[in-house]
């Protein structure tokens, strides 16, 4: 069955917590073979932006690290100075016959709900450049301390600071490739695409349930474009260019949707207004990404 048609048939379960929603939608989401399809279906099953974001974030990590095999994960990169390579002070060092991970991550999405923490760490400097790797760590491993926190919007999504105190890891837990170029940098694009697909799935489902028939075709075409773009190379400047256009197209869709919604003014709209700032998170990074794409493409 086509994912677009299925998204138009689904209705959200009666769930008010992320865990309850996750369990109630697991079977339907698992029916779909690609990460972007599962993100879209998760969005269609959501009655709030938080649940849509959660499924988009989860599926983005599944695409980034296929070896997760469906396990819930949290990408732990941000430190006191940010998530730029120069800001990463968490260290991975060899001690005798094993590796140890030590440091603190200040803001990790859904870390306290994760099975696996994907930690960006430094192995030292070479030629003046911080050398980064990504390491898989069990969330319950000895030496891992999680302290929950929350944001003023999407409160259903937990966040946590992560303290790593000489956490013992195996060589097999260190992922191949550069921690920034192979994982952290492309994840920003992969996450944008999957969260965007989930957002559009959510808006499509809401429009169908509320009888906003005139808005459904516009949402559907944006959703179709998102699915197609998710199959492209996430490192490509052309992908970044198209993604910027897609995000702008969706931004223009939101105004007429909100206008219709405002007239109904129910609990779901109240949650939407509360959570809408999530859509502006990382705007500066997206602007910089588009500027680089235009420069490389000679535009």
Structure overview:
This protein has 299 residues and is an alpha+beta fold. Helices cover 47% and strands 20% of the residues. α3 packs antiparallel against α4 (49-64). The protein is globular, with a radius of gyration of 20 Å. The termini are far apart. The mean pLDDT is 94.
Distance between the termini: 40 Å
Roughly what percent helix? 40-55%
Give the strand order of the largest sheet, numbering strands 1, 2, ... along the chain: 2-3-7-6
Q: How would you sum up the global shape?
A: globular
Q: Could you tell me the radius of gyration in angstroms?
A: 20 Å
Poorly predicted runs are none
Largest sheet: 4 strands, antiparallel
Q: How many H/I helices?
A: 9
The helix/strand order is HHHHEEEEEEEHHHHH
Mean pLDDT: 94
Structural class of the secondary structure composition?
alpha+beta
Number of E-type strands = 7
Summarize the structure.
By secondary structure, the protein is an alpha+beta fold. It has helices spanning 3-7, 18-30, 35-44, 49-64, 179-210, 216-230, 237-262, 267-275, 283-297; strands at 73-76, 91-95, 98-109, 116-126, 129-138, 144-149, 159-169.
Key features?
single chain; four-stranded antiparallel sheet; about 300 residues; 9 helices; alpha+beta
Write the layout of secondary structure elements.
Blueprint: H1 3-7, H2 18-30, H3 35-44, H4 49-64, E1 73-76, E2 91-95, E3 98-109, E4 116-126, E5 129-138, E6 144-149, E7 159-169, H5 179-210, H6 216-230, H7 237-262, H8 267-275, H9 283-297
Parallel strand pairs: 1-4
Antiparallel strand pairs: 2-3, 3-7, 4-5, 6-7
Helix pairs in contact: 2-3, 3-4, 3-5, 4-5, 5-6, 5-7, 6-7, 7-9
């Amino acid at each position: 069955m086509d994912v677009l048609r299925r998204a138009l048939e689904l209705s959200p379960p009666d769930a008010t917590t992320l865990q309850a929603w996750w369990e109630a939608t697991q079977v339907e989401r698992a029916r779909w073979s690609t990460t972007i399809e599962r993100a879209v279906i998760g969005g269609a099953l959501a009655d709030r932006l938080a649940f849509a974001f959660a499924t988009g974030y989860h599926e983005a990590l599944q695409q980034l690290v296929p070896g997760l095999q469906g396990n819930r994960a949290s990408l732990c990169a941000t430190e006191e100075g940010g998530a730029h390579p120069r800001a990463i002070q968490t260290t991975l060092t060899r001690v005798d016959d094993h590796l140890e991970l030590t440091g603190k991550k200040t803001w990790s999405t859904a870390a306290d709900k994760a099975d696996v923490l994907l930690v960006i760490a430094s192995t030292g400097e070479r030629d003046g450049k911080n050398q980064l790797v990504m390491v898989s760590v069990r969330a319950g491993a000895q030496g891992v301390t999680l302290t929950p926190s929350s944001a003023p919007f999407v409160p259903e999504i937990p966040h946590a600071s992560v303290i790593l105190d000489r956490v013992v890891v195996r060589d097999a837990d260190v992922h191949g490739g550069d921690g920034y170029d192979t994982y952290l940098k492309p994840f920003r694009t992969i996450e944008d695409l999957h969260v965007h697909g989930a957002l559009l799935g959510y808006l499509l489902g809401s429009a169908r349930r509320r009888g906003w028939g005139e808005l459904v075709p516009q949402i559907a075409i944006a959703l179709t474009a998102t699915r197609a773009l998710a199959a492209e190379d996430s490192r490509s400047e052309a992908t970044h260019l198209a993604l910027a256009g897609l995000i702008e197209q969706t931004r223009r869709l939101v105004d007429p949707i909100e206008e219709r919604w405002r007239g109904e003014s129910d609990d779901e709209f109240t949650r939407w207004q509360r959570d809408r700032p999530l859509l502006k998170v990382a705007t500066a990074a997206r602007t910089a990404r588009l500027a680089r794409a235009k420069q490389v493409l000679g535009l």
